[in-house]
Design brief:
alpha/beta, Rossmann fold, Dehydroquinate synthase-like, alpha domain, 14 helices, binds nicotinamide-adenine-dinucleotide
Amino acid sequence: MSKLNDIRFFQVKPAIYYGIGAIEQVGNHDFKQVCIVTDEGMVKFGLLKMLTDVLDKHNIKYHVFSDVEPDPSTEIVEKGLTHILMEKPDALIALGGGSAIDSAKAIIYYCYNFKKMFFEEDYIKKPYFIAMPTTAGTGSEVTEYAVITDKKNNTKIPLTDILMMPDAAILEPKLIESVPPASTAATGMDVLTHAVEAYVSTNNNPFSRCYAAKAAELVFKSLYECYVNGGNLEAKASMQIASCMAGIAFNSAGLGITHSIAHAVGAQWHLPHGLANAIGLPYVVRFNGQCGRAQHLYNRLLSAIGIPNVSGDAAEMLYNSIVTLCKEINIPTSLKEQGIDEADFKASKDIIIGKAMKDVCTQTNPLSPTREQFSELLDQ
Ligand code: NAD
């Protein structure tokens, strides 16, 4: 508990536009040249066209960089960087899931932290940065973080800089209508993991708890409906807001060891980030339940979500609720069930534990696990 005279800081930076038609807001800016950072999925599902139609209507010129891949690599960021340096846009729009948004962020990070290396004198102004998430998952549209993959070493590199915080986030429900059920499930569980981990993080605060609790409540209300009925835009809009709120919460409070493990496991076996989180979250909640402070906070979280703590063990109640939700949306309950080979698992385990112990998210987990405890969590 912080003391009254401990000065702390909480910031919500981007302007957030949300609701059906929010995409039209792009046209309300006086942009001359826009660079769009996106992936091929956005072209295939017609989402890029939704954006370029608005730009065309307002006679705004654009250039498209659509080479982003899931879990973007340093090579993709380098390639994107050359496009930005060539085009010199006054606005950068990231259209896609966490991978496209993180790529755009990393491009900005390298551009402007090393601008003296890249720019002539007259081009040092940072473009206006708009993030348009097409998944309800990462919350990357409201965070100052980006995760880039070093493919050679199978490692995820976390970048942190307020420079990467978008100026505006546009939450257009129509952009997430086409997400297939399995991705809806995985990215939705990413939201829940952000909310639960931020709520009990050692850096939690009244603001972050408020956003995290509301986000968790919305996930329990809407994720199943989004999974079984992808056309329900009301439920999808609700998940989009949950994702954004959970992002605001963890941007301030930090995360926990579900993420530390997911980063290491995701880089090793190329598992989708949300899925890796979803598999680990219930076991981490149960593990953290050994800590009195975490129990107390889980109890408050359950009551905010509206789940009665009938057993008196809040961590166990939350564990059961998460496992039930995972079963309903067909999330596997272990790495083995996900198809990770037993021999490969054994061979990689030590490397994964080493990476998870060093991960920045471990610092804000309510308990600091030993090597053996990390090993037990991985075995589950
Ligand atoms: P993603 O961006 O990797 O996309 C996964 C796939 O889904 C892609 O093939 C994409 O084309 C497709 N897709 C996206 N939107 C779609 C839509 N509307 N319809 C159809 N297909 C669509 O997935 P993600 O889970 O959003 O992002 C994961 C990445 O985000 C990871 O690299 C992870 O490390 C990172 N991440 C970042 C933060 C942060 O704060 N910066 C937080 C969590 C995760």
